UniProtKB/TrEMBL annotation, chain A:
Membrane spanning stretches: 45-68, 88-112, 118-138, 159-179, 210-232, 253-279, 291-311
Cellular component GO terms held in the UniProt record: plasma membrane
Species in which this protein is naturally found: freshwater metagenome
Xref: InterPro entries: ABC_transp_permease (IPR001851)
Record-level Gene Ontology MF annotations: transmembrane transporter activity
Identification of the protein by name: Unannotated protein
UniProt main location, coarse: membrane
UniProtKB/TrEMBL annotation, chain B:
Keyword Transmembrane helix listed: yes
Identification of the protein by name: Unannotated protein
Keywords: Cell membrane, Membrane, Transmembrane, Transmembrane helix
Recorded GO CC terms: plasma membrane
Main location: membrane
Location of this chain's protein in the cell: Cell membrane
Amino acid sequence: MNMMLVKRQSWNIGIVLIATILGAWQISRLPVFGSYEARTFLLGILPIALLSMGQAIIIIGGGINLAIGAESVLINCLAARFMVGKSFIACVLLTLLFLLVSILVGALTGLIISKSKIADIIVTLATSFILIGLAMYIQPSPGGGMNLTLAQMISGKGSAFLPPLITLILPLVVIWLPLYRSRTGIAMFAIGSNKDSAFLSGVNVDFTRIKLYAVGGLFAGISGIALTAITLSGSPFASISNTATLNSVAGAVLGGVALSGGVGGLTGPALAALILYFIPTILLNYGIDPAYSQIITGALTILVVLAGGLIRNRGKKN
Amino acid sequence: MGKIKSLFSGRLTASMLSLWSILIVLFIITGLVDHYFFTIPSIGVTFQLAVPLGLLAAGQTICMLTGGIDLSIAMIATGAAFIVSIKSPSGLGMAIFYATLYCILIGAINGLAVGLLGMNPLIMTLGMNAVLIGVFTVGITTFLKGSSTMPDIIIKLSTASIIDPISWPLVLWILIGGFVLYLLKQTGLGRLIYAVGDNAKAARLAGIRVWKVQLTAYILCALLGGLAGLMIGGQSGAVAMSLADSLVLPSVAAVVIGGTSIMGGMGGYTGSIMGTLILTVLSYLLATLNSSEAVKQMIYGAIVLALAWTYSKLTEKS
């Protein structure tokens, strides 16, 4: 029984091992490591971890969302534009409203994909343009803000590392676990593995897909709100959304989600964000020009997906 | 057999008919909004502006027919333009030679990763794009320092008109487009491209070296992308990092609107040419509207989505 558990969790255990080694390496280079540094780590991974989780849900369901970065940027800009100078209560209400917006944006994307029967890639490539355009329209230049009390509740302050940790884990517990255990969760894995068989077994493929895109959108929304709380501004740039999308795919795949669909969970992607954060940080610490960070992100994504695919294939042959 | 053939061409005409009607409607609307549009020089300019997109779409068509996609095409184009502008003081021949080498190299890496290592083409080329953005961002301040203006001959080839509305770029497009059409429809390689895209497994069992076909497709795509980059560079006179950024979505959209399946094996370059013309008239129409970049981007994304949707519905019925 115990062996079964180890086998099922082997991917996550591997991720934790790599992350621990990289983390120890990074920590060993710091003069001190306390709760302040822990918070810095958490803030570094928070937006990407949330986005990777959202992407993971969609990829497990057999899709891919190239607009997930744009969704997050849109919510980031919405929040920064309308929350600046507002009271705490108003900001909380706006947060709920914008999370609802992110769910609707995701659901709409899923609806378009289901109704039009156009490939996910094409639809989300087009919606990414629409969403970035919308973000640029709402917040034409970087700026805006958020109520400080709320921002500190989400991202903490000084050495308070618990708030960002809660922001990271709460969606996992409140959204993912119930979803995973529900009928929709089973349907998600079913349509990801084989859409036609799932349909013939009585799964409502279209509605499941819409729900998955909506949940993915919600994660992107939380990521956007978290980003606003961390940076206290909104940045309407396509480059940010592209990098974020790329990272979300890398995080999902590194976290054990197969791009072909039907395999994986959300704990892996959350942990994988640690690795995606540590590798560039460590490289930059060794005196590598920050301008290379884009090269590192791109190359890392390719290597991660490549390695993930190779390991998975080997597992299948065994 | 004859029945199947007539059925096939029947469907082809129906879809071509719908593309023609979309183009004509858009053409008339644009003409009504802007009366200058119906003049001979203006039509010449519109054709000229269509050429880079037409070349990118040609590359994308070849890739997508094999079941792939190339999202690194923007940085392939930009990179080729950069290399030519920087190397041109030491001779145009050498400059073109280096740019060709660059295209073949990037295309080969993409093709080998997809063909031999089984990488997901979407992730591979997205990652490659990020890497190239990084390389050139670092490069223009270090090893690629130098002139950013295009050589005169390329400016002439990409803008000069022969007799309105026929221009040098249009002649070039007709030559290269004709070659691509011939390649896909009349040659063995063309057949292999369709076969691999339709069913890679069956193609391999039939003795086709699938990876070689994919490698060739990605190299061809990169070369066409590089040529498009030179055209864009020539039309804008100087080279910048964001040179071809705005053409990535259109290059995919033109192919999809033109009826080539993103799953591969179905479609052709004729449709992509129509898609290119439709999108070019559309961006002309958007340029005449007095609105911000944000709004334009939203409308563009929405219309691309609507066109792809309409087209897929139209062909579904017939």
